[in-house]
Design goal:
Length: about 180
């Protein structure tokens, strides 16, 4: 059964799309401190692990909340990761990677008011992240994201992001890029 189309205005979709594309630009330009400002203080940033499962077990394809994940972080850990990269002595990012984020198939799939009067928008999108380092290291990360964006006082922040990689086995030597 297909998912119903949620009524959102073209302006709302455009604003969300521009926000996500701006975020990708900040990451590609290594403007990590500015990227952190797009994240809510209560952000949950999680990448579950993909498993190869039988067709009748698709509900187990990705690890659930509370199970092992590639990362499951909040704002404090994300700030620490940025600080570590910025030291210039992070072995997996010195010299720094060249990264390109492509974000597409952006859909607003729902919204609801939050207890503090803000609005939550539930977003689905697809991504391709290309990471190149040194002369021979190239990695492609492909998958989908489910974001909860918080709209308050004319400002958008990422309240929750779940990143679902298509790869069940990562061939990258390190997982240092942000999604």
């Amino acid at each position: 059964m297909s998912e119903p189309i949620v009524a959102s205005t073209p302006e709302e979709w455009w604003r969300v799309s521009q926000f996500l594309h701006h975020e990708a630009d900040l990451l590609d330009e290594r403007r990590y401190e500015e990227w952190l400002e797009l994240l809510d203080e209560n952000v949950r940033y999680r990448m579950p692990i993909a498993r190869n499962v039988r067709r009748d077990q698709l509900g187990r394809e990705y690890t659930a909340a509370g199970e092992v994940a590639w990362f499951d972080e909040g704002i404090v850990t994300l700030r620490q990761r940025v600080a570590q990269i910025k030291t210039g002595i992070h072995w997996a990012e010195e010299p720094t990677s060249r990264v390109s984020h492509l974000v597409t198939n952006i859909r607003i799939i729902g919204s609801e008011p939050l207890a503090d009067g803000a609005q939550a928008l539930f977003i689905r999108s697809r991504f391709l992240v290309s990471q190149h380092r040194l002369q021979t290291e190239s990695n492609l990360f492909v998958g989908k994201r489910e974001d909860t964006l918080r709209l308050a006082g004319g400002r958008i922040t990422v309240l929750k992001r779940e990143i679902f990689l298509n790869q069940a086995v990562l061939m990258a030597k390190a997982l240092t890029t942000f999604f």
